[in-house]
Design a protein that fits this description.
Length: 828
């Protein structure tokens, strides 16, 4: 059992013994990089002093006190002192924590444990080691571990003791741009004195960006003070006043960039490093760890490609399960075969456990640009804006300006799926067209029942869209034509879309409302519900709607019939609503009446053309609600297929090949059907990655192949004052904001304004009691916008950074006609 190990004896495989920081310093030392000499006090020494199980069972404060008050055993002290003496006589050292859960690919632990600088003398070094041990149990370190799902009882602390660099200038260097994600840029922050001033964020440093051979950005900080070593130990903060001179020369910047590339090359991934330059101009590398915030790149990733995040456009910030992605791989094969005649197209891409599509060729086509950005303009407006920001990039210059190939493809698809006939029938008899569309559900389920799961995904999903979409689209087309025939004011056309019939999502929401009212009227059912039992009414609801879910496009996620917790939470919210005028059915009926009244108002405003306005808008009323139906059919099919997959999961679990039945959703179809083999290790590895991605806070809407988050560099002109998005549902509301990141278990008071990153149909029952809606994602025709209009609540979508810039409890005004969201002062 080694109590101390010199850096030269450490490599990256020794994480459990030396912790993340020391493992990296050992790796860098052995690679011949300029690391100051030092050694590590191992986790074996920590174990001799502390029992992790006992410390984890007490409070962080008691754990720290235990470690600080426990004497360092003599053999550990002797080992530390002997190794310290090898560095020189009373040499100044930095003493830094090195936890086993530190400097990992998914969690940096930067600054979570303590560092002691310019420590001089044997007693001081031993005491600093003890204080480092205690810092494993600071409140911030405990909270960080809990946030990242790291077990306290499996975390141990080693301590790095390293020769102190008395630096003239120091700082941090990222070998990829941590803000934009660009992998080819090196970002350097620097200030005079010791690096702690930069690392801790206490000083405004100089900022440099190196792109290839060029320094592309120099931004000078004020550097008002520095931290420097004191003779005999310790440090001091020194006020130096502002400086307009850079603290690094161009030569030093380039030398740092060269060092950074060497470090990245050694590890094979972007690194976050700390460095120092001493009085003799010698460059030292004092730390390296992975950059944990970069979004992963696709495995097959050609240069200069652009990827659009389909997951995010569908309202999913969370990762998609392996089975969910396997399903979309089958669906994409069908889509590419039908649309472009190439089922082997590489346009479907996965990164960060999420689904992307390669839109490089779309950007390079004149027709593709216009079609996709206009489509996204009503579905996911922010993504449309970000893609438009790439139009002037020479890498994506238009290479195909002829509309001919696209027109031929559209005509071929229109003939194949008899689109002209569908459109004509919808115009001639919209009620009959709607009835025919609503009969497709059983036809699709019957067909899928006789196919394999993969065949069902390929044959029953994509064909739904061209069969149904024209019926809904002609309804919106009629709305647009009416808007050209008569002069309309902001929000008037949106009023026509309130209380639409034939909307399956609205029907689901109203069924949930009816469930709540049935429970309210039945004392027995109400008592059962309040006691946590399941009344018969809930089972009847789930029999009809149990195949739906939040984030339901992921085949791997439980449906409401598997876990009705969300439905129960929404019903509880409904039961708290006492105002009859705010009842969902009353709100819906008022919306429908307002829509009919608006049709008459607009018809009277167009003398001689009023007949056409009525003709167009009444078809809009009948047909536009079908916009939700294609997705409903797909989710219904998913419900059937999920039950079949779950049965296979039960078989695998009974054979002991997976630990539990729902582990099957962390396999793909081939693995699920394999005849033999233990699949538990495969599932465990994938669950670990999935859980890690669940903690990711930011997902790029548009990702470049060099790692750049296009929104970070192409976010358009800033708007002063209000937050501005896309108007989605007319009206103005002032109320209390409630930021909700996950609808499951959400507590929304009646009349509060729901602020969400995005929504899918699983969120919409919350709209029944919401006073208004603000969404980061979405366009004027996204799910949230459609349902908000139908319920008559003001809504603005596509509001950049809404969930971070708006706080729960703030009073805000939402103007669904202009797209403005205004945060009010307290007391307004």
């Amino acid at each position: 059992m080694a109590l101390v190990i010199d850096f030269s004896g450490i490599d990256g495989s020794m994480l459990a013994t030396v912790g993340g920081k020391a493992a990296n310093l050992g790796e860098l030392t052995r690679a011949g990089l300029p690391v100051p000499q030092g050694f590590c006090v191992t986790t074996d020494a920590y174990r001799m002093v502390a029992e992790a199980d006992e410390l984890a069972s007490t409070t962080p404060e008691n754990a720290r006190r235990t470690l600080v008050e426990t004497a360092v055993p003599q053999d550990i002290r002797d080992a530390i002192v002997a190794e310290y003496r090898k560095l020189g006589d009373d040499i100044a050292v930095a003493v830094r924590s090195s936890a086993t859960a530190e400097d990992l690919p998914f969690a940096s632990f930067a600054g979570q444990q303590d560092t002691f600088l310019n420590v001089v003398g044997e007693d001081a070094v031993v005491d600093a080691v003890r204080r480092c041990w205690a810092s494993l149990w600071t409140d911030r370190a405990v909270s960080y571990r809990e946030t990242n799902g790291i077990d306290h009882t499996t975390t141990y602390l080693a301590v790095v003791v390293q020769r102190m660099v008395q630096s003239e200038v120091s700082g941090v260097m990222f070998t990829a741009n941590p803000v934009t994600g660009t992998r080819d840029q090196i970002v350097i922050d620097a200030s005079a004195g010791l690096g702690e001033a930069v690392v801790s964020g206490a000083v405004n440093p100089d900022h440099f960006v190196v792109d290839g051979p060029d320094i592309v950005e120099k931004r000078l900080g004020d550097k008002k003070f520095l931290i420097r070593s004191l003779p005999g130990g310790g440090t001091e903060h020194v006020e130096v006043g502002e400086s307009d001179e850079p603290c690094l020369t161009d030569g030093q910047i380039h030398a740092l960039a060269v060092l950074g590339r060497k470090v990245q090359q050694h590890y094979g991934s972007p690194q976050d490093t700390e460095w120092a330059i001493d009085a003799d101009g010698e460059l030292h590398l004092t730390q390296a760890r992975p950059i944990t915030t970069l979004f992963p790149l696709p495995d097959d990733n050609p240069a200069d490609h652009v990827y659009f995040c389909f997951s995010l456009a569908q309202g999913l910030e969370r990762p998609i399960t392996p089975m969910g992605r396997a399903a979309f791989r089958e669906i994409s094969k069908s889509a590419f075969e039908i649309v472009i005649g190439d089922p082997a197209s590489k346009s479907y891409v996965e990164a960060g456990e999420r689904i992307f599509f390669d839109v490089t060729k779309v950007l390079q086509s004149k027709v593709g640009r216009e079609f996709v950005t206009k489509l996204l303009g009503v579905m996911e407006a922010r993504s449309s804006q970000v893609l438009r920001g790439l139009f002037d990039d020479p890498r994506y210059a238009i290479r195909n300006s002829s509309p001919g190939p696209a027109l031929k493809r559209v005509l071929r698809l229109a003939r194949r799926f008899r689109v002209p006939v569908t459109v004509w029938k919808a115009l001639a008899n919209p009620e009959k067209a709607a009835r025919e569309a609503l009969r497709l559900e059983q036809e699709i389920l019957d067909k899928a029942a006789n196919l394999s799961i993969e065949q069902a995904l390929r044959q029953c999903v994509v064909p739904v869209l061209p069969r149904l979409a024209p019926t809904a689209l002609i309804g919106f087309a009629m709305l647009g034509l009416a808007g050209k025939v008569v002069k309309v004011r902001p929000g008037e056309l949106q009023t026509v879309l309130r209380g639409l019939p034939n909307n399956i999502t609205t029907e689901m929401d109203m069924a949930m409302w009816d469930l709540a009212q049935e429970i309210r009227r039945d004392p027995v059912a109400l008592r059962q519900f309040q006691d946590g039992e399941r009344p018969a009414a809930l089972d009847r609801f789930l029999a009809k709607w149990g195949h739906r879910a939040v984030a339901e496009i992921d085949l791997g996620l439980p449906r409401w019939s598997d876990d009705p917790a969300y439905v129960i939470g929404v019903v509880r919210n409904f039961l708290r609503l006492e105002d009859e005028n705010a009842a969902a059915d009353a709100v819906f009926a008022r919306g429908a009446a307002e829509a009919e009244a608006m049709i008459e108002t607009l018809a009277r405003r167009a003398p001689g053309r009023g007949w056409f306005v009525r003709f167009a808008l009444r078809r809009t009323r009948v047909l536009a609600g079908l916009r939700e139906y294609p997705k409903y059919l797909i989710i219904t099919l998913f419900g059937q297929l999920r039950r079949r997959i779950a049965e296979i999961g039960e078989q695998l679990a009974s054979q002991g090949r997976i630990s539990q039945a729902d582990d099957v959703f962390f396999l793909n179809f081939e693995e699920m059907r394999s005849a033999e083999g233990d699949l538990r290790s495969v599932v465990a590895a994938r669950r670990e990655v999935y859980d890690r991605e669940m903690r990711r806070r930011h997902i790029p809407r548009v990702l470049m192949s060099d790692g750049t988050d296009a929104e970070a560099v192409h976010h358009g002109a800033p708007v002063e004052g209000d937050l501005v998005g896309t108007p989605a549902s007319a009206g103005t509301i002032t109320g209390i904001a409630r930021v909700v990141m996950d609808p499951v278990g959400a507590h929304l008071e009646p009349g509060e304004i729901l602020v969400a990153p995005s929504t899918d149909p699983g969120w919409t029952p919350l709209f029944l009691t919401a006073g208004g809606l603000v969404m980061e994602m979405g366009g004027a025709n996204s799910h949230g916008a459609v349902v908000a209009r139908e319920y008559g609540i003001p809504a603005v979508v596509g509001v950049r950074e809404a969930v971070t810039r708006i706080k729960t409890g703030e009073r805000i005004t939402v103007d669904g006609s202009t797209g403005a969201v205004t945060t009010l002062d307290d007391g307004s």
